[in-house]
# Entry
Amino acid sequence: MTGNGSGADRIDTTRPHPARVYDWFLGGTDNFPADEALGRRIAGLSPDTKRIARHNRWFMHRAMRWLAGEAGIRQFLDIGSGIPTEPNLHRIVQSTAPDARVVYVDNDPVVLAHAGVLLSGSAEGATAYLDADAREPERILELAADVIDFDRPVALSLIALLHFIDDGEGKHPGAYELVERLTERLPAGSCLVLSQLTGDFDPESVEKGVASYAAGGVTLVPRSHRGVSRFFDGLELVEPGLVPVVDWRPELSVGELPVETQPVPIYGAVARKP
# Structure
């Protein structure tokens, strides 16, 4: 399941893209000079940037192990999936539940070019890629229904996505409205997992990062603990609640670095829809 047109035809190599900058932070090679330039500028302002990106990724790994394991979720909708980095989400959940069904959503042409990697899941399950804008929730849900049964629990994954979406203006929904419109379609027993940049711990460095992204034409919106908590209104937070990503279920770690003593300015949580 892919979108219309050739991804290569739509790649603008002159402007940085969040997915490709994140790929550079993680040590990937699927980025362009504009992405690397922005990544280096941000890393120069905050030498911990690459470490922070790794911890965000590891949070995703732990959350997916919990969702596919203890929570028993078998359907996953990952919006803002980004460029594949092994192990990707479907590798993690299908290693626990081979029959898991995963739909990735992104609109970056480089991600589209790697859709073949994303689609190589287990024979028992299903893995699909949807070329769509994260700010079009109804379209995403309509197309994802080809793979996902929205009468059964779904894990909605919004990892490091919402800080690239403002609070709403113009024709697209803001971040809070987007989450509300997505979760209202999910049945009881579904889960929302997200991570979000915050300026609560080092506001000066984060504000410099915001300015660097803005100079590259990219919106970046850090949110406070209270601001991130709003995304979970009406849902039941799973222990340990909304915490810095390093503090979310560290016992589920596999091959990660030792426990961190330095703050990681990203909040993460999983919540269940009652």
